[in-house]
Amino acid sequence: MQAYDIAVLIPCYNEEATISSVVADFRRVLPDARIYVYDNNSKDRTAMLAKLAGATVVRERRQGKGHVVRRMFADIDADIYVMADGDGTYPADDAPELVLTLISERADMVVATRKDVTRDAGRKGHAFGNRIFNSIYRRLFGRDFTDIFSGYRAFSRRFAKSFPALSAGFEIETEMSVHASQLKLPVAEIPVAYGRRPEGSHSKLGTFRDGGRILWMLALLMKETRPFTFFGSIALGFAVVSLGFMVPVLIEYFRTGLVDRLPTWILAVALSLMALVAFVSGVILDSVARGRAEQKRVHYLTLKPGFAPTAERTDAQPAAKTKSTRKVA
């Protein structure tokens, strides 16, 4: 792995209890990597302890993990990116396997799936939420991932520089997964142990607040990437309700020749027109979404992946090392 320029990215908010050991562990297992800690307005000594541990510390003033990830991917240029949380729940010892899997499979993203997270996510309610949201994701966007909320991932340069990163908070991992599924990027998963936070470290994830934001993000991403399915579902709902109001009026009309419930008939016709509008909108926006996906794919293909096949890297290894050393300096 010395032939590659590797950057370890650690978004942090109030993690003074763990950040020193997290930085030290990544420095031990990836000694040639550059380690960046992005401090998201911590009110404790997170930034100072990260700097003392040897990390490059950058402050992101916009609150939210999504803002931090967007800044990290924009700021840092590397061949391979490893992203992990600063709370110590993800073992740094698995980072080399993430990197080697990315290289050997020539993937654009490798996700470290958390063992038993759907049974015990470290907090009451989180395990249930993980099961529900992962199930929803697989139904809406495909079966590429089994743990869409894992914050422990490795990325190619091509992924990092083509990812739009529109989210603001913890829903950023969901957006990453949808980006990979939409463009049909090569991805992989490896299982890793998922630890608990040490004493003095507290979760920043709100069960209902962030769960609602993730659900909203899933709906928004479905609208943007699969508009026919999204608006088709709305059209079907309007059509069913319209028929519910329309059928009794029609039965009465065929039996008596009269329409006594005129307001009900007008409402049914209005709902059917809304169903038609939603259906046509879905058809049109589906063509627009396909065009946007093609443009994103073309942009993705114009970027260098950040790593080459093993034979090419063997020949170019001295030059790659020199390049990496120059960047660190």
UniProtKB/TrEMBL annotation:
It comes from the Bacteria. Keywords: Membrane, Transferase, Transmembrane, Transmembrane helix. Residues 8-160 form the Glycosyltransferase 2-like domain. The chain crosses the membrane at residues 228-251, 263-285. InterPro entries: Glyco_trans_2-like, Glycosyltransferase_2, Nucleotide-diphossugar_trans. PANTHER family: RFBJ PROTEIN, UNDECAPRENYL-PHOSPHATE 4-DEOXY-4-FORMAMIDO-L-ARABINOSE TRANSFERASE-RELATED. This is Glycosyltransferase.
